[in-house]
Design goal:
The structure is a single chain. With 348 residues, this protein is of the alpha+beta class. The chain folds into 2 domains: 9-38; 45-292, Jelly Rolls. It is 23% helix and 31% strand. Strands 1, 3, 4, 6, 12, 13, 14 and 17 form an 8-stranded antiparallel β-sheet that branches. Strands 2-5-16-7-9-10-11 form a 7-stranded antiparallel β-sheet, with no helix packed on it. Strands 15-18 form a two-stranded antiparallel ribbon. The structure holds calcium ion.
Length: 348
Amino acid sequence: MAAGTDLSKNVEQRLINLILIICVVFVQIVSGDEEEQGKPKEPAGYMRREFSITKPIAAGATLQYWQPAGNAMLTDEHVRLTNDEQSKSGAMWTTFPCYVRDWEIHMQFKVHGHNSRFFGDGFAFWYAKERNILGPVFGSKDHFSGLALFFDTYANQNGEHAHEHPYISAQVNNGSLHYDHDRDGTHTELAGCTSHFRGTDHETHVAIRYLGSKKRLTVQYDVEDDDKWQSCLDQYGVQLPTGYFIGFSGSTGDLSDNHDILSVKFYELETIEPSDEGEEAIEDYSKILPHAENAEAEREHVDDAGSTTRGQRILNWLMGIFVICIICGIGGFIYYQKYQADQRKRFY
Ligand SMILES: [Ca+2]
């Protein structure tokens, strides 16, 4: 009887253990799925080599399908857009236009330099109509047509509309907009985020997904290199044509940094046509004009309040010092006159 009770208790305990193990495994699976939700999954498409940069990269060699410009150079480890030297500009562009409508790019990069306090200016990812034209916008031409993602390490803008740097910002341009460096492009920004990608010991990962069929642009990043991805922006209403070029460019000015692209993987995604039958059919996607519905409304270039306040503050200080000098001078003069009068009284 006692042996039978022990046996049933033993079976019961084993059953409880089994249920507990199943519960733990279930929780692990569920929590694993939750972690995966924040992470860009391996795209359900295939990689296009002509728009990708994969290792091994050979120093001094040429990169098939890509063309360098300016100070860009190849090392064994990366494509270096600029060295950590002043007044450099470099770029790397694909030689073939991209006619993929829905795509995703996984990019690894590193921005670093000798100075931990003063550095700049940053680099840009481009999906643009014209390629390999050096210029003032992070090493490339202004008034571009297409999409730019700026990885801006130096804060030029103070006061209103300023944001913490390093900063990633997206701009969609049809060629009419000017990138205002003094305002960090905040006049023409679509969306952006602060991301501390500069000066880390490891590379930074960025996933840029554009679904032309859904007019949706998504940018995610992993700064800590620990597979924990954060959303930078997710915008609907972004229209980009096919047939543009993919590129990168970087620049330094008075301040400098190394701007290194370590790898680029371009995935062509399966396009799912919108089911909305009311939508106007587009026969030629290369004729779409770049447009972003939610872009910042254009506004006047106004000197930011920060610099005005600084100037006023200096002027106020100088005026204050001047007034104090005058008061001290008058006080000193009155005291001296009184002292002289007292001296004369003593003698007479
Ligand atoms: Ca800037």
